[in-house]
Design goal:
Layout (H helix, E strand, L loop, with lengths): L1 E6 L5 E7 L2 E7 L11 H11 L9 E7 L3 H18 L2 E6 H5 L7 E8 L2 E6 L4 E6 H10 L3 E4 L1 H9 L5 E2 L7 H14 L22 E4 L2
Parallel strand pairs: 1-4, 4-5, 6-9, 9-10
Antiparallel strand pairs: 1-2, 2-3, 6-7, 7-8, 8-11
Length: 216
């Protein structure tokens, strides 16, 4: 099976391509003129060509549905849906917190800024993402003996509270490989969707204090 997976929702675009048992990954950083997601489709075509393939050779596509950059989410989901619809193949939706929690093997709490004094939170032993207030997040972190994975947006708050955290923006983790690992696990659990069911997860707090969401 040939699998194409990509993430444009976070701080850089990451692409993973698995051809049978061979894995190739690619990372795209933003430049001064364009956001990194602007190069996604061109890079996919180039990567496939380097491996003597075209889009028609792809059997399954996976993408990060968010939370993250509004523009990045739209780009990733739109391209994944277009590829899947055109080729009549299945999709695998992946959540940002699900990806980031794989950066380290130790128990961890992954936290993403959801704005309006809220955060998306995923614990490594939980398959759901919770949206909670920052005060609740800080209390949770202080009650757990585990690593915290976040970005500079929440990092200032953690530093002020004396909480050490891992900044995924400066991590050297191979996100393309992580995407493929999660994709294969979801294939084995039959967590596939049709292109019309691939929906973005935007950063928009609900009207209640806490809400749990499935990450497939």
């Amino acid at each position: 099976m040939n699998i194409l997976a990509f993430d444009t929702s976070l701080h850089k675009t990451c692409i993973g391509l698995k051809i049978n048992d061979d894995i190739t990954t690619k990372t795209i950083l933003s430049d001064e003129k364009n956001y990194h997601s602007a190069y996604l489709l061109d890079t996919i075509v180039k990567l496939l060509k380097e491996n003597n393939l075209t889009l028609k050779d792809i059997n399954l596509v996976a993408t990060n549905i968010g939370p993250g950059s509004f523009t990045g989410i739209r780009v990733g989901v739109s391209i994944a849906k277009t590829i899947a619809q055109t080729l009549d193949i299945s999709c695998v939706p992946i959540n940002s917190a699900e990806i980031l929690s794989r950066i380290i093997s130790e128990p961890s709490i992954c936290a993403l800024d959801a704005r309006k004094n809220m955060a998306y939170v995923k614990q490594s032993n939980d398959n759901t993402v919770s949206m909670i207030e920052l005060s609740g997040l800080l209390s949770l972190i202080k009650s757990k003996n585990c690593k915290v994975i976040s970005d500079s947006s929440l990092g200032g708050i953690f530093i002020k509270e004396g909480i050490e955290y891992i900044n995924f923006e400066t991590s050297e983790a191979d996100f393309g490989r992580i995407l493929l690992e999660i994709t294969e696990e979801k294939i084995n659990r039959h967590k596939l969707v049709n292109w019309w069911d691939l929906k973005p997860l935007y950063l928009q707090p609900p009207p209640i204090h806490q809400k749990k969401m499935s990450i497939y």
